[in-house]
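Renewal narrative, Specific Aim 1. Our central claim is that a sequence can be written position by position from structural information alone. The example that follows is taken directly from our test logs and has not been curated for this report. It begins with the structure tokens describing the chain, in the order in which they were read.
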């Protein structure tokens, strides 16, 4: 009645195999070109370099169309063409970032599942160690009890000899 992951953990614990592996490496190895491209775009699009560069581009666009090309600006105020360009960039960038976030969520779920398996195996190993320690402690207690019984028997012999020796001295 165990789930496949739990069966894998139990088999790993019984056979002494190592369960840990790098989930990120496994996910990266299975990533397609599109997946890697989406991750790269999301990484660049979410950086300070991109934000600063984009602000510089916007400032250049506004300055060029209002100051430098005052006589014949290619996109006069209110910058309708700039709005179109920004809308197209957002329309393309948003789904790409969502694809990257979906991959990150999948990787996080795999990580969480793997962490659960590792924790479950650690718990099984700890329980096994507790059983071994309990068995060792029980064996030690049994040996101590046997030793105490033998010591008690020897003390009884010593006491009887002392008692016999004391009674013989009284008789002399």
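The sequence written for that structure reads:
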């Amino acid at each position: 009645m165990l789930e496949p992951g739990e069966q894998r953990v139990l088999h790993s614990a019984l056979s002494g195999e190592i369960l840990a592996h790098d989930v990120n490496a496994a996910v990266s190895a299975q990533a397609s070109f599109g997946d890697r491209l989406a991750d790269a775009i999301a990484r660049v699009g979410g950086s300070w370099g991109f934000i600063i560069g984009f602000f510089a581009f916007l400032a250049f666009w506004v300055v060029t169309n209002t100051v430098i090309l005052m006589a014949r600006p290619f996109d006069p105020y209110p910058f309708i063409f700039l709005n179109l360009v920004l809308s197209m960039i957002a329309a393309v960038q948003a789904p790409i970032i969502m694809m990257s976030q979906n991959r990150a969520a999948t990787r996080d779920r795999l990580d969480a599942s793997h962490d659960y398996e590792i924790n479950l195996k650690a718990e099984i190993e700890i329980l096994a160690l507790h059983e071994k320690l309990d068995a060792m402690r029980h064996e030690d207690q049994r040996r101590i009890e046997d030793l105490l019984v033998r010591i008690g028997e020897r003390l009884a012999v010593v006491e009887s000899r002392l008692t016999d020796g004391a009674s013989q001295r009284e008789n002399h």
